[in-house]
Design goal:
By secondary structure, the chain is mainly beta. It has a single domain, classed as Quinohemoprotein amine dehydrogenase alpha subunit, domain 2 (Lipocalin). 13% of the residues lie in helices and 37% in strands. The protein is built from 1 helix and 8 strands. The longest helix is centred in the N-terminal third of the chain and has 21 residues.
């Protein structure tokens, strides 16, 4: 019975870690936008419009002596995508669990956990497994990573991840 409890604890920790690493931030549609056309500030039902405003021609931006460089869009952009996380419990909770996570623009999301990943690969997540708090830390580089987790029930262990 303690082995089953340990496996469940590890599974929960792994799922939380994976979800934090792999889950993308939810993209939500903007609510409240309705009708109209571009440039039409008057959204009257009759369709009547005032005289069109004059439009000035855009001036080209001045040339730069150096080409512009791509800028990071926050932490973790190079780690964006789906990840598979395997968590293995220590002596107090032996066993291992594999789960999935999505990383999007420095945010890690998984089932039951969420967190962040910095541009240099530092991962921090927090989750909940059946009322047990799970905190995970680690680092990813390229297409893989590793770290550790600690549960509020005393279970702790390690995790590894691979980008899909």
């Amino acid at each position: 019975m303690s082995t089953l409890r340990g496996r469940r604890a590890i599974a929960g920790a792994m799922t939380a870690t994976l979800l934090i690493m792999l889950a993308p931030a939810a993209t939500l549609a903007q609510s409240g936008s309705a009708g109209g056309s571009i440039g039409n500030d008057d959204k009257s039902l009759s369709g009547a419009r005032s005289e069109p405003r004059s439009v000035e021609r855009e001036r080209p931006s001045p040339r730069r002596s150096e080409p512009s460089r791509a800028r990071s869009s926050g932490g973790g952009a190079s780690f964006d995508g789906a990840w598979v996380v395997t968590s293995t419990g220590g002596p107090a909770c032996p066993g291992s669990v594999t789960s999935a996570a999505v990383v999007t623009s420095g945010k890690v999301i998984g089932q039951g956990f969420s967190g962040s990943i910095s541009s240099n690969g530092v991962v921090n997540t927090v989750g909940n497994d059946n009322g047990v708090r799970v905190v995970s830390t680690g680092r990813v580089s390229g297409r893989s990573g590793s770290g550790s987790f600690q549960r509020s029930d005393g279970c702790s262990g390690r995790w590894t991840s691979v980008k899909q």
